[in-house]
Amino acid sequence: MTLIFSGNDYKYELEGVMKLFIPATLFTHVFSDKIETEDDFAFIREKNYKNFVLLYVICSYKGRICRKVRRITDRNEILSCDKELYLSQLLYKAMSELTGIVPKWGVITGIRPVKRVNDMLNKGRSKEEIFDAMEEKYLCSREKCDIAYETALTQKKVLDTLDPKSFSLYISIPFCPSRCSYCSFVSQSVESCLKIIPEYIEHLCREIKYTGELVKRIGLKLNTVYFGGGTPTTLTAEQLELLMKTIEDSFDMSGVAEYTVEAGRPDTITEEKLRTLKLNGCTRVSINPQTLNDEVLKAMGRRHTVKEFYDSFELARKIGFDSINTDVIAGLSKDTIESFKFTIDKLIELAPENLTVHTLSIKRAARLNHGDKSELENPADRMVEYATKMLMGNEYKPYYLYRQKNMVGNLENIGWCRQGFESLYNIYIMEEVQTILAMGAGASTKLVSLDPRRLERVFNYKFPLEYDKHFDLMISRKKGIEDFYA
C-alpha cells in the first residue's frame, strides 16, 4: 500500500488512520503531486488557493476507488482549522466505504483518548457537549464516548487531589520464566540470563540509592511504588527483599499511598515471595491468568495452569492482600467467545479489586506478528463488549484506558476497579500528570510539570546487558532530572 502526500507532510497521523483499516502493514510513503503507482494507494492532498483551501483524498483498494473532498472558504476557518484532522476524517470515511470497517474510536489514533475528555471536563463542558465533540470532531462512536467519559469521571477524584510535588517510582525487572507469544516488552527468559541477574540487581540497587539522594535535593514526595517487568516475581525472595529494603532506606516512605508488585505469572509465585512482599510494604499485587483455558495458555507459551492461578490468588488472600489485580486478554489465539465469557464470569466470581481487560496487539517484536494474518481476524470486539457489560453490571468501574498500535479491532485496554481501589500509578502514568522516576533496564523516566505544562523523558538502556555495561554513563544522564526541576 502506497501513501502519497501532496501539499502536506502529515505522515504519522494519516498512516495511523490507515492502520485502523489495514493493520500490521508496512506502507510506502511518497511525497508527490501525482499518482504514479500500480499498487493500492491513498492520495492525500492539501491545495491552498487565494480564497479557499481544498482538501481531498483518493483511495484505491482492491480494485475499488473512493474520493472524499472538503472545500474551506470561510477566512476564519482557513486560518484556524486543523487541516490534519480534516484530512484524517476524509481518509477515514473513504476507507470505511471501501472496506466496510467502521472503527469505533473514529480518527483517534493516540494511546490516551481519555485525555481529550479530561481536557473538556476541566473546561467545564457538559456531558452532552463532550459527546457531541467526540462524535463530530473525532467520529467516535457513542459506545466509546461513553466508556471514555465514565473513565474520566472515575479518575477525577484522584486527579483533583494530586500533590504537584509528588512522584512515583517505577522499578523494571525485565525477566520472565518464558516469553509469551503476544509479548514485545523488553524481557528475557530467566533460563537464558541467570548469570546476569545478580549483577543487574547490584546495579539496580545503586541506581535506587542514587535516585533517592537526587530526590532529597529536589524536594519531591514519594506517592506510589510500582514493580513491573517482565515478571518481578521471577526474582528470588531474597533478591526482592534486597530491592525493597534498598527503596525503604533510600526514600521517605511515609507518604506512600500504593505499592504494587506485578506477580503476573502464577508459575513464579511462592508463599515465601508473597510474604516477603507483604512484610516489606507491598499493598497491591497483580496475579494474571490472561485466560482460564489451559489450551489457550499452552498456545500462548505460558507455563502455568488455570489451577496454579487459582492457588496463587487464594494464597495471596490468605497472606493478607486486599488489593489484587487480574489481567485477561481478548482475542488470544485459540480462544473462543464462549471460553472468554467463561473467563470473565469466573473472575467476577473471584472478586478481584482490579480486573484489567486487554485487547491483543499484534506487534512487530511479538512472535504472533510473524505468523498467519488470520490472527488479525478474531472476535475480540464481541469479547470486549461482553466484558464491559458484565463488569459494569457487577459494580466495577473503568478507571484507566489506553490503546496500542496494531490493536486487534482498533480496540483498547481498560482497567476496571471496585470503588476505592483505583490504581493511582496507572492513572498518573496514563494521564501524564505526575513525574515517574523509572529505574532498571528499559525504564523510561517521565518528568512532568503542570504549571507551566512541560513533559520530558530520560531513557535508560533498553536491555539488561547494555544496562550493566554502560551503567555509569546511564547514571550521568540523570542529571537531566535535576536540570528539569531547577
CATH class of the largest domain, named Alpha Beta
Arithmetic mean of pLDDT:
91
CATH fold topology of the largest domain: pyruvate-formate lyase- activating enzyme
Rg from alpha-carbon coordinates: 24 Å
Structural class: alpha/beta
What profile does the largest beta sheet have?
9 strands, mixed
Tell me how many strands there are.
Answer: 18
Percentage of helical residues? Answer: 40-55%
How many separate domains make up the residues?
Answer: 3
Low-confidence stretches: 364-376
Shape: globular
Going by CATH, the architecture of the largest domain would be Alpha-Beta Horseshoe
Q: What kind of assembly state do the chains in view correspond to?
A: single chain
Number of helices: 17
Features:
486 residues; nine-stranded mixed β-sheet; five-stranded mixed β-sheet; globular; 17 helices; pyruvate-formate lyase- activating enzyme; 40% helix; Double Stranded RNA Binding Domain; 3 domains; alpha/beta; 22% strand
